[in-house]
């Protein structure tokens, strides 16, 4: 179900109406890979494609990197560029028959641009588009498995999911406490003081020793269920809407 590995003849035969699109960015994740925000949505799409019977498109690896852009290796594009990319790609897919597009985002800084692009795609091209960010829906599960503290960017939940989806990348993760910055709701700092950012914990470190392989695998399976359920519910509603609009 890899979109770019299928031949023209296979695409002509299958006539896909729905597809998955992974989008992330390249930015600092402390001792974890710079491509964490790309590896996660790509792995989610790979795992979901057969289950949902929809192909996954090649990933867009560059997103809106802001607060971590100063750290070595980080890079990105503007919000206008990312929004334009989504609109132009979606329009070309719509011309070839795609009806429903599910964007699996791996980077919180992309959300505003992707939501704006999704709205434009439906309004201008009639392409039904959903943007899904896994960490919002998976927070309760992360707290159940890993505990309530130390969740955030390059922290327990994100690295736990990457380790569960891509255990081959987890060997080089830091073990034990790593320095972190607790983001305050009323404070914005550019660049971020540290690449490990927590949002519900007042502390100076995050303990990554909690990333036991069995816990990470359990978390990954749970996130896959959450994202799959969301896609199925959205698709069911969209298809019902289309039937109603078509008078069927």
Structural features, described:
This protein is an alpha/beta fold and 248 residues long. 45% of the residues lie in helices and 12% in strands. The protein has a 3-stranded parallel β-sheet, with helices on both faces. The chain has a 3-stranded mixed β-sheet with strand order 4-7-6. Helix 4 links the parallel strand 2 and strand 3 (128-133). The longest helix is centred in the last third of the chain and has 33 residues, at 213-245. The protein is globular.
Main sheet: strands, sense, barrel: 3 strands, parallel
Mean pLDDT across all amino acids:
95
What percentage of amino acids are in beta strands? Answer: 5-15%
What's the count of strands?
8
Helix content percent band: 40-55%
Order of helices and strands: HEHHEHEHEHEEEEH
Question: Cα distance, first to last residue?
Answer: 30 Å
SSE-based structural type? alpha/beta
Report strand order across the widest sheet.
1-2-3
Low-confidence stretches: none
Superfamily (CATH H level) name: Creatininase
Number of domains: 1
The CATH C-level name is: Alpha Beta
- The number of helices is 7
CATH topology: Rossmann fold
Rounded Rg: 19 Å
Outline type = globular
CATH architecture: 3-Layer(aba) Sandwich
GO molecular function, one term: hydrolase activity, acting on carbon-nitrogen (but not peptide) bonds, in linear amides
Keywords: Hydrolase, Metal-binding, Zinc
Cofactor: Zn(2+)
GO biological process, one term: riboflavin biosynthetic process
